[in-house]
Amino acid sequence: MRLTPGTLVRDHTVYSCVMGSRAFGLATEASDTDRRGVFLAPTPLFWGFGKPPTHVEGPADEQFSWELERFCELALAANPNILECLHSPIVEHIDATGRELLSLRDAFLSRAVHRTFSRYALSQRAKLAADVRQHGAPRWKHAMHLLRLMAACRDLLRTGELVIDVGDARERLLAVRRGELTWQESERWMSRLAEEAEEAAARTPLPSEPDRARVEDFLFRVRRESALRPGPYDEVMER
Predict the structure, then answer these.
(1) Residue 58 has what DSSP assignment?
(2) Residues near 122 by Cβ (< 8 Å), separated by ≥ 6?
(3) Which class for 187: exposed (0-12), middle (13-18), buried (19 or more C-beta within 10 A)?
(4) Model-level pTM?
(5) What domains appear along the chain, each with residue ranges and CATH number?
(6) How many distinct helices (H) and strands (E) make up the chain?
(7) β-strands 91-94, 55-57: how paired?
């Protein structure tokens, strides 16, 4: 059997969701539908020289998927995009493995989120500031999403729970997207969120480290179950 990257996504996805503005509660009529997923490559595919991919772009537009192990690695490293993917309110597909993955959401969280979210926020803020210097205004959509991310980080540090829907902040954030706030007002908002996140980090209920052993046990079990599952893997995966 030849398993193309598209086949891995189509037949071996354990979890898929919608991300972007639709998941954040910031969608407008013009918003795209960004889909993210996790697939479990059959274990026998790792036994040959040609390993399965760690990620696949497509096959649909605005679709991106990670192999389960890579996804877990990034989540344990507190990658903001990956952690938010685990908390999407719009789940399109999930099987038993996917449900167990979601049950591990708390195992991936640690105080490292302050560093990773803040580092990402700083890089994005620098890009926005460069836009202002060069063009007189930032990309307002990007400014809106940066503010959303910074607020989510602050609240995660405060409560220990990651919520990606913006809730009551929707209208003010959409006002940023429309350019109804000045760049100076948006910057002040960003600075306040950064200060509040710093304060929250000092007393956050999050553990100092993620529960790597719990995640590794999950990954070992699903790999073993996949290896024991009957399947025709006579041919290597098509590159």
Answers:
(1) -
(2) none
(3) middle
(4) 0.91
(5) 5-109+210-228 (3.30.460), 112-201 (no CATH)
(6) 11, 5
(7) unpaired
Write the DSSP string, 126-177: HHHHHHHHHHSS--HHHHHHHHHHHHHHHHHHHHS------GGGHHHHHHHH
- 3 state DSSP class of 67: strand
Q: 220: Cβ–Cβ under 8 A, 6 or more apart, which residues?
A: none
**Res 233 pLDDT > 60:** no
| Amino acid making up residue 223 | R
**Neighbour count for residue 188 (Cβ, 10 Å):** 12
What pLDDT digit, counting tens, does each position of 140-196 carry?
Answer: 999 999 999 999 999 999 999 999 999 999 999 999 999 999 999 999 999 999 999
Q: Starting from the edge strand earliest in sequence, which strands make up the sheet with 55-57, in order?
A: 55-57, 63-67, 34-39, 13-19, 91-94
Name the token pair of 113: 């989120």
Of the candidates 82, 69, 168, 159, the residue with the CA atom closest to the CA atom of residue 117: 82
